[in-house]
Structures are given as structure tokens and as C-alpha cells.
Amino acid sequence: MAEQDFMNDEAMYDKALLDTLLLNNEIDAFREEFLELHTYDQGEYFSEADDEIRNQMYQLLSPKEVAEFLETTEMEDEDYDYIFEMMDTRYASDMLSEMSFDNAVDLLKILPRTKVASLLLLMDKDASEEIKALLHYEEDTAGSLMTTEYISISEMMSVREAMFQVKEQAPEAETIYVIFVQNDKKKLVGVISLRDLIVAENDAYVEEVMNERVISVNVADDQEDVAMIMRDYDFLAVPVVDYQNHLLGIITIDDILDVIDEEASEDYSRLAGVSDIDSTKDTIFTTARKRLPWLMILTVLGMITATILGNFEETLEQVALLAAFIPIIGGMAGNSGTQSLAVAVRGISTGEIDEQSKLKLALREAGSGLLSGLCCAVLLFIIILLIYQTPILALIVSFSLTIAMTVATLSGALVPLLMHRMKVDPAVASGPFISTINDIISMLIYFGLATTFMNYLI
Length: 458
Hints:
Elements: H1 2-9, H2 15-23, H3 27-35, H4 39-48, H5 51-60, H6 63-70, H7 77-86, H8 89-98, H9 101-108, H10 113-122, H11 125-135, H12 142-145, E1 152-154, H13 159-169, E2 178-182, E3 188-193, H14 194-199, H15 206-209, E4 217-218, H16 223-233, E5 237-241, E6 247-252, H17 253-271, H18 284-311, H19 313-318, H20 326-350, H21 355-388, H22 391-421, H23 431-452, H24 454-457
Parallel strand pairs: 1-2, 4-5
Antiparallel strand pairs: 2-3, 5-6
Helix pairs in contact: 6-8, 8-10, 9-11, 16-17, 18-23, 20-22, 20-23, 21-22, 22-23
């Protein structure tokens, strides 16, 4: 097991060997060693290489060979921008032409418009037109994710004719396992797996063996909705149609995995109170710019908490010991609210929470907060009683903790649900935001009770 863990931490290629072969200009040896690697490892080597090595690679590898690993390599947008800036324009254009259209579009969206125009101008006309059409779709929609490289057949074909059609289209298709069926008006009318087509009788017609219960997505659908559909139905590919049900393209599982990762990162960053996940390559000023908006809002909200404490100054002066329990009540309320928030945001993001289950979620979280609050309150009551031997103080602090945790847990669930109803991303209700709001509520509860029962404390 330890050996397996060690292997996972090591690169699956010999970087030093590849560097040496390049520096010694051993062209054939480098090509043989490099092209035997998995495309992931090729991309890893390329992403870690300096400009000199990359320029040598462009000389030794064809645009197609570079395209095979570059379209699957994960790098920052600025890295891709720099790569295309340093790469010969003709070479870059030929390389993009070798990629699947959706991956080429993803890269072109990163580049400046002038660069995109020059690259498209040098491309094959048909490829250029396909890519231009895909570039026009809005970001984060099904249209921006789809590829037009799919296999489609007519419902009027025989199975024998369809198999010939599949063989003709297969070399350019992104996936061959799912075949889409259209009528004479290019509308999507069915779907059939390659397996079902192979085992069907040659003389049967496609319309007789296809599955007419087609699940599709609209070209304008949000990418998160598409991801849910593919997850729920275990699709390898989902067809994309327009409002008239014309087949426009398909979205494959590899693109959806990227979307799921992107959406999870986005939700995580918002829960942490930043606009975007910080890159390790971000400058000090870029990192600060991403974090400042929420921090400034939280500063203002923090002043509200400070104002509340100021208004109860007289209460604190009379019983200074009350101040000792502020961190406990505020902290526990914040923790409870953040836990509830995480459950609600995840439920909304994954589609587990619908209109019928929202009330159930709110009641469950409120009940959970009350039960957790009571358990913590009993423990806190005993500790305060043993240390300070003041029953009324122990009762006030414990009761405040119970109410604060109940309200905090309920608000942690309700705030994202309310935002979802208002068509606002529920992940915006970040952890720091909920914690600060709960600080305000818990302090009002705590000092309100303490002031009410002041005569029993003195």
C-alpha cells in the first residue's frame, strides 16, 4: 500500500531524460520516448517546460501531436494566452484544426479577439465556420459546451445503410457509442446505442429499432442543469436541440466532468467568501481584489455587532462576567449556521431539494439546531455551575446558546432557499456572511436575556 501511494506521488515519465534528449538534439529518441507517454503525462511535461523546451517541441512535433495533449491539459487562462502568443500563428491554427470543435472553442474564448480572428482566417473554411457558430453561444450554456462532431442517421435508413453511415462518420465523431436519429427535417426523433445497432437485423429500419424516448437539452440551458441531467440518467452524451427540436450538437461526459469541477470550485469559493478560487499564480493585488468585496461587507456587518455590544455597555459594566461567554455563544451559532448552510447549498446545487422538500429541510434543520443547542446548553450549564457557582448566570448563558443555535441553524437553511427563489446563486450566502449575521442575532438574544434578568444577576 505504501509503495502504491509512493507511485501515485511520482511522475509517470522521466522528465530529466526528455530534457536531456532535447538538449542533445536527439530528435528520433525524444519523439519515441515522448509519444509513448499518455497524453496526460505529455501535457504535464509541456506545462512544466520553459520557453526554450516548448519551442523545440514545436519543431519536433506536428500540430496534430501537440493538439492531442494540449486539448486535455489543465492550465490557467493566462498560461494558454502566453502559449498562443509565443507559438507561430500558422502552427497554432493547424493545431486548433486538429482538435475537436468544442475544445478548440474553449481555447479560443481565452484569447484576444484579434488573435482569434487571425487564427480562424488561416483555418480550413468548414472548420472555421463550425467554430465561429459555436463561439456565438453564451458562456455557461449548453451551446457553449456542445460539439457538432457526432454521428447521426436517418430514421428511414435500414440497419445495413445506417452501419455504413456510422463507419463514414466515426473518424470525426467525438463519441461513437451513442447514435442520434433524425427525420427528413433534421429534427431529433430517436437515439440508438452502437451495440443495439450492431445486433439488429440488417433489413430492419432504424425507426423500428431506435429508442423514441429521447432526453435532450436546449441550447440555452444552463450548464449546471445539463450536468444534473447527465448525472441522473448516466449519459455518456446528451443531444442539444433548438426550440424546434432540431439537433444542433452533443455534450459528452468529459466536458460535463469539467463543469462539475468548475461549479464545485465556484460554490466552494463563494462559501469561503471570495469571488473566485485563488490561483497559486495570482499576484498579491489580484488575490486581495478577489477577497476585498466580501471582507468590506463583513466589516460593515461587524460594526453592527460592535454597536449592539455598545448599547449593552451598562449591562456589561454591572456584570462583567457576561463578556466571557460572548465567544462561545457567537462561535457556536456561527458553526451551526455554516453547517446548515452547507447542507442547503449542496442540496440546491445537486437538485436534491425541490419545492416540496424545502419546508421539510427547514423544519429538520430547526429541529436539529434545537436538539444540538439543548445538548450543548446542558453541558455548558454544568460547567458554568461548577466553575462560577451562579445558577442564574448558567441558566441565561445556556438558554441563550439554545436559542442562538436554533435560530442560526434555521437561518443557515432559509437564506440560501430564499436566494434560490429570488434566482440568485445560493452559494453567495457565504459562510462568513452567515456567521456574521448569526453573531448579530446571538448577541441580541444573549444581552436581551441578560438585561431582562439583570436583577437576579447582581
